[in-house]
Amino acid sequence: MVFESFAESLSFFLWSTFIISVILGFVVNKTNFCTMGAVSDMVNMSDYSRFRAWLLAIAVALIGVSIFEYMGSVNVTNSFPPYRSSQLIWIENILGGFMFGIGMTFASGCGNKTLIRIGGGNIKSILVFLIIAIIAYYMTTPFPNSDKTLYSVLFYDWVNPLAISLDSNQDIGALLGGAENTQIMRLVAGLVVAAGMLIYIFKATDFRGSKDNILAGVVIGLIILTAWYTSSNITVNADDSHYSLSEYYSEWDMLAEDDEGKPATGRALNSQSFTFINPIGQTYGYIKDGLDSALLTFGLISVIGVILGSLLWALISRSFRVEWFVDFKDFINHTIGGILMGFGGVLALGCTVGQGITGMSTLALGSILTFISIIFGSALTMKIQYYKIVYEEEASFGKALVTSLVDMKLLPKSMRKLDAV
Prior knowledge:
66% of the residues lie in helices and 3% in strands. A hairpin with a 2-residue loop joins strand 4 and strand 5 (241-244). The protein contains 18 helices and five strands. It is mainly alpha-helical. The strands form two sheets. The protein has a three-stranded mixed sheet with strand order 1-4-5. Strands 2-3 form a two-stranded antiparallel ribbon. Helix 1 (6-31) packs antiparallel against helix 10 (211-233) and helix 3 (49-71) crosses helix 8. The protein is globular. It has one domain (2-415).
């Protein structure tokens, strides 16, 4: 996809993102694809159908990325965010993922689900959106008249020294293949992992008969892949040479006549696919700075597109319903959930979609750690909540926590404080 001007290429980039995002929002709402719901089904009903749909989306995206990367058709290494960075921020992946998992449970859904619920008329999710937006924005952007961010004040000093510097990129293919065999090992690792997932997914008879879950997994996986492909292949023809959007931005003073149409940042022009917490923060910045077109990014457009896609399905299916808080406790829960998702999503470099599908399609170790931590944080929170409901005053938080960890086989049975339910 070669364009004769930067303006044309950027316009195509943003409009194609919008169209793909609308489809994503439409399909997610139609199929009730929900990662928090998937964990809830597993914990409360031992139903793994929606979890398999989540894994199917990962497998489809992973197969596509592995093949296209081997062919040189996508670039998922120099991406935004940098999933395959040679610096493994493991504590941020684990802590951020864990916080995010707890947060999405309190807020009745992850970042993507928050957008879907807004499109469906849920006013509670608007509160969650606003909280995430402000926290995510100031996690990466300095406070007014300051050089400090929430990240630098609360996290940098103690998490940064714990990061591990690797001799290669952090994805499984690079780690196994070394400098000489990285390309082929990325293909092999991707296909082997995806094959294992597909075997697990389709061995379940119930899942094979679930059209909506299969549709969700396949389409969402393809959407993630489409975004990777599109963002990797838009180029500008300048001085008889082809430049990617980020390359053109870095050479702006040499290639452009003036600053008209120049985006505010070049990082957001790198190859990328869907993630939602940082983009929700970008939405706040875009509004705060007066709807400056220089701030339009893939992420910001995707937020708008997903909401509109969800709204479209809600109107077509007549499922649009205005929902408000049940009581004050419901309000507090959603507030806590938004806070934890705002901090956790930025710390972990993504959410259930950003790390749990997009990041997983790169097989980056950080994405794998985040994926596991999100599931653990959500599952543990649900179990604690369940014991607190069943036993009411008898179940202190400590007793519910210990018993939940026993149920998850992380503590010996002898430590159980409450009878299993």
